[in-house]
Amino acid sequence: MSRLLIPRRRLPLTGLLLLLSSAMLWLIMNWAERTELARLQAAGSHRLEIYAGSLRNTVSRYSYLPRVLALNQEVRDLLAHPQDPTLQARANRYLETINQEAGSASLFVLDIDGTAIASSNWREAGSYIGNHYTFRPYYQQARVGRPGRFYGIGTTTGQAGYFLSLPIYQQRALIGIAVVKVSLDALEASWKAGAEQVLVADHQHIVFLATDTRLKMRALQPVPPAVQSVIRDSRQYTATHFPALPVHIDRPVDVNTAVWQLSDANGQTQQFLTQRLPLPEFDWQMLLLTDAASARRASHAALYAGVPTLAAIYFGLFAYLQRRRRIRDNLAAKALLEQANNVLEQKVADRTQDLQQINQALSDEIRVRQHAEAELHATQNELIQAAKLAVLGQMAAGITHELNQPLAAMRTLTDNAQTLLARQQSAAVQSNLNLIANLTDRMGRITSQLRSFARRGGDDARPVSLQASLSAALMLLDQRIRQQQVDIDMILPRDDYWVVFEPIKLEQVLINLLRNALDALQGRADPRIVIRTQVHETQITLMLQDNGPGIESNHLPRLFDPFFSTKRDHDSMGLGLSISLAIAHEFGAELTAGNLPEGGACFSLILQASPQKEATHA
Ligand code: ADP
Questions:
Q1: In order of start, what are the domains of the chain with their CATH numbers?
Q2: pLDDT at 615
Q3: Ligand 1 pocket check for 26: Cβ under 6 Å
Q4: Does pTM surpass 0.85?
């Protein structure tokens, strides 16, 4: 759907504005037209007075003539002897002379029966003489003693004229009627010189004088049939039917003024300001039609000026409103931004508080963990100690046997030495004593190892001799090794390896691994343990391989779990490997388990090589 040029919500306002604009334009146009019409009206009133004045002047110029005739002796003589041709000829000549001098259309005298007895046009073919004019209103008016006034077409001449009549008395008796006919043709012709149109209508509203001949014999109002018959009887006009003026009255301005739309011969209409002036002395009315095109032009000019002016006003208004809206929008945006800022600040504050709380929680957690770690560490140490004691317990029988053997030997040697001493065989005694001393040394070494094993180890990492640690571990287990007749195959380099560890703990790890191997080799024919090393950059891997049953694959993932044991004896607590792994990690070492392809288990202890060599091993 195409978008509207004006937003939908603005439509009522826009409609209202358009309505107001139209109303305003209409008012302005109306005002301009009225102003121009008023100007035309003022000018028209003045001109109308002038036209009316010219009509009055024309008529009044001849109004004295009937009186002159009435007083003339020749006329009176003729009226006294109407049949006298001499008197008639004299009167005719008189009338002819006066008519010529006065410039009237004609002068004539009627007897009391309405018959023309003398006339200024007595010489002409259409002379009035002998004609009867009783049907004429000017005769009828004069017959009853009043001066007559009548405008009509001459029945004899066919020329229009204004008839003024006067009764002629002889000793209070009406003897005749003097009549002057005034032509208004010259006056009418003079009016045509003006730009406007002038109409004169009689008391029956029939236009008889008009600058536009087309409008003559037209009626301002419909003529009733009775009036029409009166006109016919008086033979006032040759026409018997009087069509209405081809006029449409646009609008009345006042009683005597209106705007007319007048159609011309081609049916084109033209606008006129029509002003009416009653002429009561004639019982006529005069109409002045002024071209009102200028009023229409003024109205159009107002429209042409008004539209751009209104457009400019609206544009200004629109620009002002736009600007005001922009400012308002900017303020709103600013307020929104501030609000958003406040919200953001609040969020940051909230988030900071959250973070502080999380931080606090983390700190607490760290403290708890540290505490747990310390506890774990302590527990581990305890476990190591417990495991050592367990090993010691296990080894107790072997150690006892190990110590009993030299003790028994020493006892025998002592007894033997006493016998030899009694026999004075001092050399043999000496040999016995040497043997006893050797045995004592051996026993001392065993107990010293035990002591060092039982002692709680420190946490200090330092360079430790791998071979010394191995020897110490093997020595502690020597009795079992020999008992199980296990073949220990040490594939070690000539040079000693030094690793970063704590000596007692390394010894403990090695003892655990060797002891497990010995456990696995229990009851095996041809038992064997291979000990070898591998060096890779800073790491030294010590591998302990046995030819026992190996580790079941499903046990491998749980092998280093505390208390995981497959052994059935009470001493096996399943702690050896887990403790060993913990110790290894403590010193950055790693402990892994696997099976050899040919069978048997393989444990690898990956140790950090020590850069320094130090003979610190006890
Ligand atoms: P324990 O010796 O008390 O059982 P350890 O943690 O030392 O506990 O050993 C866990 C288990 O690992 C043993 O029970 C055994 O099943 C297995 N194991 C350890 N060493 C070997 C080995 N060399 N050969 C076969 N199995 C072994």
A1: 65-183 (3.30.450.20), 196-294 (3.30.450.20), 458-618 (3.30.565.10)
A2: 45
A3: no
A4: no
